[in-house]
Amino acid sequence: MRKPFVAGNWKMNLTRAEAVALGSALAAKAAAFPAVDIGIVPAFVHLDAVGQAIKTSPVLLGAQDACAEKNGAFTGAISTAMLSDLAVKFVLVGHSERRHVFGESDALCNKKLLAVLNAGLIGVLCVGEKIEERQANKTFDVCKTQLVEGLKGLDKAKAGQLVIAYEPVWAIGTGLTATKEQAQEVHKFIRAELATIFDQSTADALRIQYGGSVKASNAAELMSQPDVDGALVGGAALKVEEFLGIITAAAAAKK
Ligand code: PEP
C-alpha cells in the first residue's frame, strides 16, 4: 500500500507574511491526516520562515528546484546542502515551468535529480506532455523519454527517495484536468516503465502523483484511480480550505 503524497507548489506567489500564515494554517490541521504525506513548496526566500512555522507539524517542506552542482561560482543558484540546512525534505525536479519556461533539458533534470537524491533528499521528478504532443499521440513517448533520461544512472537503492509526478502540461494552471481515465492510463504506463527501469517491486512501491488543475472538487475521482498516489497541486494549494479538501479526498480514497 502506497501512502498518498499531496504537495502544494506555491510557485512565485505570496509575500513572506502570507506564506507563513498559509503554512501555519496548514500545520494546525495536518495532524488530522496521518495517512497522507503532506508537503508545501514555498519560494526559496520563504523556506526558512515557513519551515519555522511548520516545524512541529507533520507537514514536509519542499523546494521548487535545486542546483545540480555542490557549491561554487553559480550565481543565483541554490545548492542541496543549503536546502537541507533549512530542513527541506523534498525537491521538485523538471517541473514543466522549469522545462518549458526556463529551457531545462532532460540531461539537466537528470543531474539535478541525482544531486538531490545523493544529498539524501526526496526528489519529485515531474514528467508530462504538451497539448500538441498529446494530439499527435506522443504522450507515452514523451513520458518514457523524460523517465528514461531523467532516471539515468540512478542507483536502485535510492529509488525509495524517488517520487514521480505526472503533470500533463496542458492541464497545468489552465483549469483543464485530465479525466480520471486519462490520468490512470498514463500512470499505469509510467509504473510499467519504472518496472523496466528498476524492477516490478520497486515500481509497485513508488508513488506517482497527478498534477494539473487538481482542486477539492475533482480530487476524489482522480485519487480513486489505482495508480494515482496523490497530487502535486499549484493554484489550489494557495487556499487552505481547497488544499485541505484535496488532502481529505486522498485520505478517503486510499483508506
Ligand atoms: C503545478 O504547478 O504543478 C500544477 C499542477 O499547477 P495547477 O494545479 O495550478 O495546475
Structural notes for this entry:
With 255 residues, the chain is an alpha/beta fold. The protein has helices at residues 16-30, 47-54, 80-85, 96-100, 106-118, 131-135, 139-150, 180-197, 200-205, 216-223, 240-253; strands at residues 5-9, 37-41, 60-63, 90-93, 122-127, 162-166, 207-211, 230-233. The protein has an 8-stranded parallel beta barrel, surrounded by 6 helices. Helix 5 packs across helix 7 (139-150), helix 7 (139-150) packs parallel to helix 8 and helix 10 packs parallel to helix 11. The model has no long low-confidence stretch (mean pLDDT 97). Residues 9, 167, 172-173, 211-214, 232-236 line the site of phosphoenolpyruvate.
List the helices and strands and how they pair.
Layout: E1 5-9, H1 16-30, E2 37-41, H2 47-54, E3 60-63, H3 80-85, E4 90-93, H4 96-100, H5 106-118, E5 122-127, H6 131-135, H7 139-150, E6 162-166, H8 180-197, H9 200-205, E7 207-211, H10 216-223, E8 230-233, H11 240-253
Parallel strand pairs: 1-2, 1-8, 2-3, 3-4, 4-5, 5-6, 6-7, 7-8
**Gyration radius from CA atoms, angstroms:** 17 Å
Average of pLDDT:
97
Q: Report the span from N to C terminus.
A: 10 Å
Q: Oligomer, anyone?
A: single chain
Strands of the widest sheet, in order across it, are 1-2-3-4-5-6-7-8
Order of helices and strands: EHEHEHEHHEHHEHHEHEH
Main sheet attributes: strand count, strand direction, barrel closure? 8 strands, parallel, barrel
Number of helices: 11
How big a fraction of the residues is strand? 5-15%
Question: How many runs of DSSP E, i.e. beta strands?
Answer: 8
Instruction: Report low-confidence residues grouped into runs of 5 or more.
Output: none
Percentage of residues in helical conformation: 40-55%
* Structural class determined from secondary elements: alpha/beta
